[in-house]
Each structure stands twice: as C-alpha cells, then as structure tokens.
Amino acid sequence: HEAPRRVKRAWVIPPISVSENHKRIPHLLVQIKSDKQQPGGVIYSIKGPGVDEEPLGIFSIDKFSGKVFLNAMLDREEHDRYRLRAFALDLGGATLEDPTDLEIIVVDQNDNRPLFRQDIFTGHVVEGAEPGTCVMTVDATDADDPDTDNAALRYSILEQGAAGMFSINATSGEICTARAGLDRETMGVYNLTVQAADMSGDGLTTTAMAVIYLEDINDNPPEFTKEEFSMEVEEQAAGVDVGKVFVHDKDLAGSPSWLAKFTILEGDPEGAFAIRTDPHTNDGVLSVVKPLDHEVRDRFELTVSVQNERPLEPSAPGSPRALATVRVRVRDVNEAPAFRENPRRISVLEGTPPGTPITTYTASDPDTHQMQTLSYALLYDPADWLQLDPHAGTVRTKRELLHPSAFLQGGWYIALLLARDDAEPPLSATGTLSIEILEVNDHAPQLQPPAGTLCGRPGRGGTLLLGATDDDRAPHGAPFHFQLSPQHPQLARNWSVARFNVTHAVLAVLAELPEGPYSLPLLLRDSGTPPREQQQLLNVSVCHCGRDGTCLDGALAAATAGAGITLGALMIILGMLVALGAARVRGRRRALRKGLLQRSRDDMRDNILNYDEQGGGEEDQDAYDINQLRHPELFSPRAKPPLRRDAPLSSGTPMAPRKLPSGPSDIEDFINEGLEAADSDPSVPPYDTALIYDYEGSGSVASPLSSIVSSLTDEDQDYDYLSEWGPRFRRLADLYG
Questions:
Q1: Cα–Cα distance, 493 to 604 (Å, whole number)
Q2: Which of 438, 456, 488 is the last residue of a domain?
Q3: Buried b vs exposed e over 673-695: b needs ≥16 C-beta within 10 Å?
Q4: Where are the transmembrane segments (predicted)?
Q5: What is the per-residue pLDDT for 409?
Q6: 84: which residues sit within 8 A by CB, 6+ positions away?
Q7: How many C-beta atoms surround the C-beta of residue 480 within 10 A?
Q8: Considering only 206-215, 253-262, 595-604, which range has the smallest mean pLDDT?
Q9: Tens digit of pLDDT for each residue in 227-271?
Q10: Do 297 and 391 belong to one domain?
C-alpha cells in the first residue's frame, strides 16, 4: 500500500472573511501556491458560485501568481458565504495538486433597518380595564444577521398623548394598559406611535401606528332630558301616537348599553296607553291603545321610568333622572250617536193594520257636554212597510204586514234606521230593526189533489192516499185531521178515512162499489190555535179492478173481458214495433263493432257470449269458438259453417261456404260480411227478438223489460253497472259508461 501523501500547508487555504459592501474594487483576498514546480511553471484556476456560476464575475484569480481578487460589492443578505474550488496544473495541463476548497465568508454590516409587519396595528380593550391588561402585540423584522446586534430589536412608544395610559414591552412589543381610568365616553380611540430600533435600541429605527379602540360597557344610565312632559290627544282615537319623551345616554349609540326601555309605572289603570322605544333616536313614543272618552276623563298624569336593555354595571353611578311625569290632556270632539240595543228585535202579528205603533227605536249622543239634537230616518225598508217619526224614533206600520213575502228571511223582516246629530260636520249611526212576523192561523188546509181513482173492491186496491197543504207556517199547519163530512153520515157505510201521517190520510172502500164517479164531502182541519177547518169535495173515480187489485186501462180491460183485439193480434203489433226498433239498433251496433275493432290494439277476445240475444232462449248462450278468429288458417275453407241455433229447422243453408280470412287483419271484413248475410236472410228472425213471457197488468211504475220498446236512443240509458262486471266488460263500460 502507498503511504498517504502529505498535503503542503501552502495548498490548504483557511476560510477568508470579507465585509459586505466593500467598496475598494478589485480587492485582494488571498494568494494560493503550489511547490510542485518552480514559480512560473504552475497554472492556477478557481471554479464555483461567483466565478463560473451565478452570480458571475464576483471573484477572479491570476493564473500565474495564484492571487484571488474580489471584483464586486457583496451583500450578506443575498449570499452570506461562497464555496469555491482551486486547481493547480503544470504548463502541459497535468494536475499538480488535488483540488482544494476555498471558502469566502461575507461579514455582516448594519445596513438594514427594522421593518414592522404592518403599518397600522389595531387592538380593542374594554373601558375601565385594570392596569396590566394586555391589548395587542406589535412586531418587526430585521434582514441583518440575527446572531449580531445588527438584528437585536428594541420597541418603544414614541407618542400616545399626555395621559400615558399604555406601555410597551421593549423586547416582545406587547402593549398593555399602564393605569386605570380608561373611559370610552371621554376618549374612545387611542393612537400610539411605536418604534423598533436595532443594535439593541441604538441602531437603525422604524415606526408604525398602533390604534386602540375602547369597547363600551353600560356604565352610564339613560336619563330623561327633563322631569315633565305635556301632550294632547283627541278622544275616541286609538292606535295613534300622542308624543315623545326624550332621553340621553352617554354609552355607545346603537349598542345594548345605549338602547332604552320605558315603563308606565302609574296613572294608567285601564291600560289605555303604551310606550315604545324609537330605535333610531332612543326616545320613548307614547301611544293610545284604547279609545279615550273626554266625558269620562279629560286628563291623565303618567309616571314613566327608563332603563337600558343591558343591566347597568355595578360600578356605574345611579341616575337622578330615571323617572319622568307625562301629562296627557284629552280633547273633546264630536262623537257619533249610538244605538244601545243593536239590533233591536221585536215581534208583530201578521195582518197588523196600518198605522199601528210597533216600537220606539232611539239612539243616544255620547257628547253630554254639547247641546245636540238627534233626528231619525229610514235607511232600508225594502217592502215599504214602515213609517218613522224623525224626532221621536217611533216606528209604525205603513201597510198590512203579510206572510209569506219575498222580503222575509225565515219569518223576519229587516229594516235599517239612521240616527244623525246636528253638529258640524254631522255624524250618524245605523241601527238594525229585526221584526218577527208572527204567524196567524188564517188559512184552512187545502185538499191535494182534489181527485183520484181507486178500485171499487174492498181489501186489495180499494184505497186512495189523500194529502193536504196549508199556507200557514208551524204551529198553525200540520198535523192535519181528515174526516168524512158529519153532515152526511150515510157515507160511513161505504167509505172510511184513516190517518197515514201528519199530512196524509188513506181513503178506503168498505163495500164493493160499481164503476163510476163519486163526490165525497170531506172536512179538513189544521192544528192551529184556534184551528181552522174547511169542508171540500173529493172527486173519486171507481175503476174496473184487475186480478191484483189495480185499475185496468181501457184496452187491457176490454181484452181481459173478451172484447176488442185478441191477444195474438196484440203480439203481432208488438213484434212489428220490436222489429223496427231492432233495425235501428243493429245499425248502431254495426258501427259500434267497426269502431271497436279499429280502436282495440290488444287481444281482449276470450269467449264471445251473446248476452243481448233474447230470441233463442238458453241455447244462444253457448260460447263461440274464438279459435276461428285467432287462427283462421287451421280451418278448412270447405268446412260447413255453424248453423244459427235460432233459425227455423226448415231454413236452408248457403250452397257454398264463405271464404275464411287469410290473416288476422281480415277479421273485420269477415265479421261484417257474416253480419250482412244474416241480416239479409228473410227466413231467420233477428237475434234480439223480444219474447212475451206473461202479461203483468197495467199501472206498474217499473219500466218495460225491453230497452228497444222503452227507448230507441241510448241517451236515457244508464250503463254505469258495466264497470262492476269485471275485465270482460271493461271495453263496453268505456264505450257506454
């Protein structure tokens, strides 16, 4: 192994210090040497920042002598040291020495002033704060070397006014209160000029502003500006402002310590006044909440107190002006008259003769301190039934009061009266007069209807329901009493009258009577006080009785007796009527089927049941094979078409069967062609032939069974029940429902 070589001292270069801002340029820093060759035989060079790296051109070396020079002023705040490499080569370029380090240290100078982080510092402290209460901290920086006095800062207050209320920590820059007595009402803002100096206070300096705001506390109570206030207000005024009471508070305007709260302590037992705070001026606004009456009380003396919304600080002094007296005078004004009883309700018998006094309806004038006269007039009298004394207020009937009348509302007649004083300007009031027209029993009940028909056979059918009406209202109307005239006692042998309800009775025959007209005198009586009765004639027609006890009309009675038209002829006539109606119905049904097939896009077909075919009996309810419509290609064109089950046995069949549709789209034409063939066959009755099962008599309130006979139109038919028959009838329900 080769022993380590000893490096000569001349080639080991210690750090070189040079002051920043050195002005003698160029300046020799150091000379490096190598003893490997004779002087003049070595080439020296340096590399690194300041030479061939940024910043360029600061250092240079004489390549023959090895002298290193400073060529520019240095700034420690930009570069505090430079690390270079020195090289030694012979004239042939061979390395004579290993590269060595050359460190140049820039020595700091106090060339930078301190800088505050802000130009203006802001702080807050409550008024009355104790000494030593810290408010804020100001701080500054110095770009010089922090390890030297060049960056050692000290803080001070240059100016804060004569009071000297604040102090500053020279090292930390913290500002605190120095003494007691901070009062926002005396001085709300303090402006301090603070200074920062380096070299421990003896070097370069800089200044800034410190603004300290005092925060308000409630240390000043509100005070009335004077002890007494006087105001006026008109009587009967409510919801109006009477006036203001003025206060003063030294605390910060708009803060809870400034806002005032007023209370009425005395002088208003009825609660006629209220007081609130004006949020802009902080004054108290007195208002009237209940109408005042000058005739009852013409002046008020109120005791009002004031305090802040926020409680007063315990250390704050009390106020001698926390109470004030407010005197309010009530001015007299003209007031409208008033009807004490409004509405006035009275009762008058109907038929009261004209000129009859019915009431005296007067008003009173609340202005008792003024001499005024009231006059009266009718403001509303729709039937012109009344007349009024304009001075006394006496109401009389002008014409007879009748009942019933279109001007009555539930038996009451409404009129309006006007009372007016003679002040300037005059005031008026309206009174409502409600007159109940009492019913008088002045009408006897009337038989309704005055005629009727009944079967002349006792028991089944030999009864007639009688009714009555009365123009009088309860309690002079029903219940009614029906009886045969006492003047004709012989009527009781054949007739009887029994009560049915309060307005009706039942007339019944006691013996079989011959057909013909009868006149029965009846006595009808109401339940009035006193009761009114009247004898009236009831015209009764005794008819021919059917088997069920009902009257038969002329045609059916003759047929039953064996006279007139025969039953077979009657069936032929009914059949012709049914055929005419069926023709119209089939036309509509054909159009309906066509529209149904065009609108239906889903296969709702299941089994087609002929529910509306009444001509063939129960055989017509056999299901139609729907597969012929769904799959026509499965059936042979030569197959024999199905026979119509309602056709006569002797009816012939077509010589050749119709061609079945080739696809589902031809089903409509297939059905229409079959329908046309069936309609044109004279030997087959229609599907909807009506069957006459039995004759049920006349006079029934029920409609005929056949919809064709009862009506030839669909407007009066109710098909809403189809929606309750399930999904198979949903399409018909949509069409007819």
A1: 70
A2: 438
A3: eeeeeeeeeeeebbbbebeeeee
A4: 555-583
A5: 86
A6: 46, 47, 48, 49, 50, 51, 59, 101, 102, 103, 104
A7: 25
A8: 595-604
A9: 999 999 988 888 999 999 999 988 888 888 899 999 999 999 999
A10: no
The two counts, helices (H) then strands (E), for the chain are: 6, 40
| pLDDT tier, 696 (very low <50, low <70, confident <90, very high otherwise) | low
Q: What are phi and psi of 632, to 5 degrees?
A: -65, -20
Straight-line distance from the first to the last Cα atom of the chain, in angstroms, rounded to the nearest whole number: 122
Apex 270 CA angle, 268 and 275, nearest 5: 50
Encoded tokens for 293: 């009456």
CATH number of the CATH domain containing 51: 2.60.40.60
| Mean pLDDT, rounded, for 546-573 | 49
Query: Which CB contacts under 8 angstroms, 24+ apart, belong to 627-634?
Result: 628/660, 629/605, 629/664, 629/667, 630/603, 630/605, 630/664, 632/660, 632/661, 632/662, 632/663, 632/664, 632/666, 632/667, 632/670, 633/662
What is the predicted pLDDT for the residue at 553?
65
pLDDT of residue 95: 86
- E strands, 227-296, are 228-234, 240-245, 247-248, 260-266, 273-277, 284-288
Question: How far is Cα 486 from Cα 522, in angstroms, rounded to an integer?
Answer: 9
Would you call 458 helix, strand, or coil by DSSP?
coil
Do residues 425 and 467 share a domain?
A: no
The answer to whether position 654 is within a domain reads no
The model's confidence at residue 183, banded by pLDDT at 50, 70 and 90, is confident
How far, in Å, CA of 397 to CA of 386, rounded? 5
Going by C-alpha positions, the residue among 120, 158, 150, 113 that lies closest to residue 136 is 120
The residues, ordered by sequence, that sit 6+ positions from 579 with a Cβ below 8 Å of its Cβ are 686
How many independent structural domains does the chain possess?
Answer: 5
Signed CA dihedral, 149, 151, 156, 157: sign only: positive
Q: Is the pLDDT of residue 638 over 50?
A: no
The residue written with tokens 């006193």 in the block is 530
pLDDT at residue 328, as a whole number? 94
Asked if 300 and 233 count as a contact pair (C-beta separation under 8 A), the reply is: no
pLDDT digits (tens, 9 = 90+) for 116-129: 999 999 999 998 88
CA distances to 229, 347, 576, 675, 676 from 665, in Å: 103, 84, 38, 17, 19
- Is residue 97 assigned to a domain? yes
Q: Are 222 and 196 in contact (CB under 8 A)?
A: no
Whether residue 236 is found in the same domain as residue 305: yes
What phi and psi, each to the nearest 5 degrees, are found at residue 436? -90, 120
Please state, in angstroms and rounded to a whole number, the distance separating the CA atoms of residues 399 and 405. 13
pLDDT in tens, 366-418: 877 677 888 999 999 999 999 999 999 999 999 887 777 888 888 899 999 99
pLDDT over 90, % of the chain: 36
For residue 151, the enclosing domain spans: 115-215
449 preceded by a cis bond (ω within 30 of 0): yes
Of 404, 421, 438, which marks where a domain is finished?
Answer: 438
Please give the DSSP secondary-structure letter assigned to residue 129. Answer: P
- The per-residue pLDDT of the chain, averaged, comes to 79
Q: How many CB atoms lie within 10 A of CB 68?
A: 24
Do 255 and 307 lie in one domain? The reply is yes
d(CA 262, CA 304): 7
Give 198: exposed, middle or buried? Use CB within 10 Å, 0-12, 13-18, 19+. Answer: buried
Secondary structure class of 210 (helix, strand, coil): strand
